[in-house]
Amino acid sequence: MRGITKRFPGVVANDAVDFAAARGEIHALLGENGAGKSTLMKALYGFYRPDAGEIRLHGVPRVLRSPKDALRAGLGMVFQQFMLVPSLSVVENVLLGLPSQGWRLDERAAAAQISAEAARYGMAVHPLARVWQLSVGEQQRVEILKLLARGADVLILDEPTAVLTPQETRDLFDTLRRLAAEGRTIIVITHKLSEVMAAADRVTVLRAGRLVGTTTTATTSPQALARMMVGRETFDLAERTPVEQGPIVLEVRDLWADGDRGPGALRGVSLAVHAGEIVGVAGVAGNGQRELGEVVAGLRRPTRGHVSIAGRERTNASPLDAIRAGLGHVPEDRLGTGVAPHLSVADNLVLKSYREPRFGRGPLLDHQTVDEVARELIEEYKIQTPGPEASVEALSGGNLQRLILAREISAGPRVLLAFHPTRGLDVGATEAVHRALFDQRHADVGVLLISEDLDEILQLSDRVAVLCGGQLMAIVRPEDVTVEQIGLLMGGTRLALPEETA
Amino acid sequence: MSPLIAAVLAAAVRSGTPVLFATLGEIFAERSGVLNLGVEGMMLVGAFAGFVTTARTGNPWLGLIAAGATGAALSLIHAVLSITLRANQVASGLALTIFGTGLSASLGRSFVGVPATGFRPMPIPGLEALPLVGPVLFRQDALVYLSYLLVLAAWYALYRTRWGLNIRAVGERPEAADAMGVDVARVRYGCVAIGGALAGAGGAYLSTAYTSMWIENMTAGRGWIAVALVIFATWDPLRAVVGAYLFGGVNALQLHLQASGTGLPVYLLLMAPYVFTIVVLVFATRETARRRLGAPAALSVSYSRDQ
Amino acid sequence: MIHLERRRSSGAASAVALAVSIGAALAAGGLVLAASGVNPFAAYAELVSDPFGSAFGWSETIVKATPLIFTGLAVLLPARMRLWNIGAEGQLQCGAIAATWIAVFTPIGHSSLAVPVLLLAGMAAGAAWCLVPGMLRAWLAVNETITTLLLNYVALLLVDFLIYGPWQDPQSRGFPLSPILPPAAKLPVLIAGTRVHLGFALALLAVGAVVFVLKRTRWGLEIRIIGDNPDAARYAGIDLARNILLVMAAAGALAGLAGAGEVSAVSGRLQQGLSPGYGYTGIIVAWLARLNPAATVLVAILLGGLFLGGDGLQISLNLPIAVVYMLQGLIFFFVLGSEQLAGYRLRIGRRDHAASASHIT
Questions:
Q1: Is C354 on the interface with A (CB under 8 A)?
Q2: ipTM of the complex
Q3: C136-169 pLDDT per residue, tens
Q4: Quick check: A490 and A165 in contact, CB under 8 A?
Q5: Contacts of B90 in chain C (CB under 8 A)
Q6: Most Cβ neighbours (<10 Å): which of A259, B156, C162, C203?
Q7: Which of B168, B173, B175 to mutate to test the interface with A (most CBs of A within 10 A)?
Q8: Share above pLDDT 90 across residues of chain A, in percent, rounded to a whole number
Q9: Which residues contact A475 (CB under 8 A, 6 or more apart)?
Q10: Which residue ranges form the domains of chain B, and what is each CATH number?
Q11: Option in A11, A340, A364 nearest C232 (CB)
């Protein structure tokens, strides 16, 4: 089968990229964040129309105008954000929109069929379970089943292992191999070298929108791939000067909490953050990190345990209590939680501090002072905006984060909770955020860093706490462990490690 | 069962039927993700159209069809605004109520006091003799029987057909449905139209079966009660029956107390159905929060593929 | 393929859209009128000339606009916080009840304190009536749209109960009317020879107060933050429940003030039809004013004129006042539609994202 050839010049995203995948192979599309991998596949899938270049399926040039076209042409894509309806069952999700059925909906009959199909590829599913009850790995399997039910023979998976444990990742690759063995084409978008070497037959590397090369995994090595991906031998390790550890500024003891999905999101977690250190919380998404952050910030009540901020007991604190206790919080969802999008930059900069006496007497708000303070912060933190009165909507992701950091840091917190602070940011903005976190560390602030980016955690943290299933697996120093060991911890394996006292 | 209780229960069924129609209709609309607060307006327009057609043609079934058609037509205004133009659904629904109320009252002025013969009670032989349920459920008029069938049809359609699956998906996560090839707009238009037709039918019941007359504002807020009952019913057609007949019961009881001359002031009794609905709403809200059965996740959120 | 593409709506485009939509609404309404045998041109001519064609007409328009400013604010303020107060009608009635009680059934009604006290009583009653749904929303997350509305019916029944029963004027020969309010309880007239009363001045003050609160107080900032992004408000430590209660109480007070004013200055007694639906029209006022308090004055005058014209049509062309409702509904529809269209641009061609850099990964 003559696979897919695609060329289209940038726009920044893809610059004259050629890509070909053959029947029966697992082909990895490798590159860093921002290399253009997803864009390339979205162009294939009909989301975008390439500005130039052509796509051929089975040797025939095709024009795909929408994802529905792509589905009909036999392509199937599993996105990072699953397209599942949470309140419906697995069967219902698979049957949704399936062309070949009649008007009746018979769940039981379909359930048997789906189980059988899933078993063929080594996937375990509960057909009648509601999707919201499933783990992320199971949901991913449902997505794959949906595509198989529509007869997809080219499967594209976008960063499929980002949310899986190592065991689930192994199961997924097993499934993919079985699918490929039947003649399907599997394309995996990823930035993880180890997976490419383990699972793929061939790999194409993109960098900054350009094609670097295509090779077989048999004839290459992780180091060679890394070089192609990054353009240099190794990453720069952040300079971490030792800082005196101060007193404990944030402590949680035996913390238990329920999550949105059900009880037991946090099970007896205890850890402490000292002034002048960065503690990273590592773990696969959905293992309690969010709940931990929410409890500390006062946005969720724990069912058991204690939280203390700056030495004072703050269990069951409201968000206002936490703020008053000296907690700064850079939230996970910038636009959704961190700012009021239609209000001005100035309003957002005083979002928490407007209660301070300097901003007005009694009920009144002193506009002058707000404006002055806003201008100072804009200048100091280099927020690119037409002015304090401009609406926040127009700010880019990086500037938005600068605004949030400006707000949180200028309040002089004792503890800074940073939640996925560099998600979706480009390289420059990411560096700015990292620098800001380091500065806080130097300024004797305790930083609790929660992030899905393991590299970021390892780079920045003095100590790393690993969560799995709501439990604290271990607290280690990045220098003392390997990535594999952390991966195992994230996957739930307890290791014998030199234990750090929390 | 004593004849008195049977009579009150039968009156409860009659009183609850218009609300049942409207509630079922609104369930479809909301299940597909569209909040339609124009139910009151559509009921009034339906009541008017149903009455006029019945009076002019002498055939209440034609009246029913006219009512359904007008209700659906009116609801399409809301559909265009909410679905295609993505306007605020609460505002659009309110506009529909205001418009429908005004339209029906304006056009209906010359029909106040005009006589018409509507649906008459149609006892079902055999079934009406059943103990307990017979006198209550099977000595009603044709529209009530129609409502029984509608409940079952609605339940079946929603849970046992592809179309119902599409509706549920569109109301929960339209992006997913869209990605799987479901025409979100078409499903929503259809459901809003059904909602309008059923609301109109509910109104027609008031003017051609429950009574045979037209009075301005004769629904007296039943459309709003239907919206509240949708929440009580947790968007399920079978539970809608419970809510509607409970409301009907309160109403029938209150009427009975008025008629039987207890000392209670008339107006305080008349308040009962509204206060009852508020109480019901409080309990329903707490219950849906506690269980995982909630509103369709995409309710009143406009959908656009650009987002 | 034609599709709509979002663009920033300009102020000018919005103003034009508003004017066009009102015109379109009147045209559509004209069709309905014609269909029911009325000459639309005659009707519209009167609709415009009655309220705006003479000085007296203007004064009467202002009299009608006064409660509309209050109810418009009563809907607007909660709407700034994403709350829907559909209960302004009932809150207005409660304000009227409280004012009547003070004026007729207490000695204060005959004293020099009558006016201020009855106004305050009206505010308190309206606030209380709106606080019930407010508390249900703040503490039990019960949808306030439905609860405020259901209480309208209860309030109207309460008025009926009083004027058919214990408060019925013995001299009214069986008609449902309360006794006439004593002279001391009548709101002073602002412009001699007209019915323009103190309420109008108070309404303008209320507008100023709302503008001030929103722009220059901490409370106003909290309201704006909650209205813009409730999640961010929570994250910032703002107490949502407290703000809901405050805003609903304030809104109810404003609507109650309208009721007190109407019963004192316009009708002179508690009766049916005290309000031809000012509470519901308040929703339209708030919307047409785009939730901008200062704009409510102009919109209220426009819609007040519509009511006045409708009154005239009742007499001259024998049209029910419901026609005004129909026209209001149509205006609301067209404004909603045009707002959306003004925010979009018609594009012919393929929907394409290749040029948008924000989707790059």
A1: yes
A2: 0.88
A3: 999 999 999 999 999 999 999 999 999 998 999 8
A4: yes
A5: 84, 145
A6: C203
A7: B173
A8: 30
A9: A271, A279, A463, A464, A465, A466, A499, A500, A502
A10: 3-290 (1.10.3470)
A11: A340
